[in-house]
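Appendix C reproduces, verbatim, an entry submitted by the partner laboratory led by Prof. M.T., so that reviewers can inspect both the input and the predicted structure.
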Amino acid sequence: MRIWIDVLGCPKNEADSDALKAILVKRGHEIVKDLDDADVAIINTCAFVSDAKRESVDEILEVVNYKDQRDIKVIVHGCLTQRYFKEIRKEIGEIDAVLGVVPPLKVAQAVENLEDFKDSPQPIYEFLGRTIDEKPYAYVKIGDGCDRKCAFCAIPSIKGPLKNRGYDDILEEIRFLVQNGKKEIILVSQDSTSYAYNGKNFMDLLRSIDSIEGEFWIRLLYLYPDGIDEDLVMTVANSKKILHYFDMPLQHASPKILRLMRRNPDLESIKRKISFIRSEIPDAIFRTSFIVGFPQEEESDFEDLLRFIDEMKFDRVGAFIYSDEEGTESYNLDQKVKRSVARLRFNKLLERQQRISLERNKKLVGMNFKTLVEGFENGMYFGRTYMDAPEIDGLVYISSSKPVKIGTFVDVKIKSFEFYDLEGELK
């Protein structure tokens, strides 16, 4: 059959769907890029926050309405269907198969038998292959689910407790990707620092990946702050391939709000940790994320957050407006913040970070950076340095008088800057 796949949500979903494509091809099916060419449509959904749920439902409705034009089967799976299985099956009867959070092999089987499947979440899987697309990077899921009890997060109720993939399985997948031309391997999990499997921990995994032959980068995402210790920092510092990029979501900087969030309110320990990283890895890049508008967040709490951002001068900051999710502890908190107030705080935070980003980018002019070339548009190549993760951070636009091969590393001298992007020339 000809199969069209739509992936919504986080990089973990993208890794799942890349694995699914490989399994489907092995089973004799064809992956198509256009829904018009498909016999089967598969939608991998998200339900992390309200906006993601709306996007998933809208996409499902758009695809099932397409059935009025031609005979096409629709399969829906992932977080939304795990969380609202009965409701979706009842309200959108045009779906041919509804599955929850299941391994890619189970989705592939549903293509052939069109049977619903709902059980306890099964977010991890054995390595059965990966598709190789034109992107020079690939996400590799090392685990999923979460044991943390953050008050705002629905993930544990959707995906269950943290489950980690097999150690050798992960290494086999990475070797396969590198052998097939991938230049950046991005490790993802709901809680990467808590990886453990048969006596092996996250540092063991990193050292094993670091020893894999080939020219490639390793980028770490979703590093829970409490899990970043001296061992991890020195492993990164001494690595040949792990990028000096620390993605550590902090969520807030008011001790009161952090306690309500069930996060660590000890900001001094966070500051000491960041200071230690900067002392051992002077070129370390820090990405973090914050939630504004959490229940009971007062103006003084928000000002604490702005002062913290000013003091720490993070390289990359993502901001989110609090989403009130049923089933979470924060859903039952009183003194909800008005959406309009939260939106004003969101904009103010981004404006504050823009000034910091501009100042940091200004200092990069004249410096040289190894850059992974990702494409060509409007007469310029573009790519990313170690400082930027795909899809969430900035780009470097590169002028060159000679052709450059997409998916290769080049040295670029930075000539100018904007809030988030840089411009340079090939050395």
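The radius of gyration is 22 Å. Additional entries are available on request from the coordinating office.
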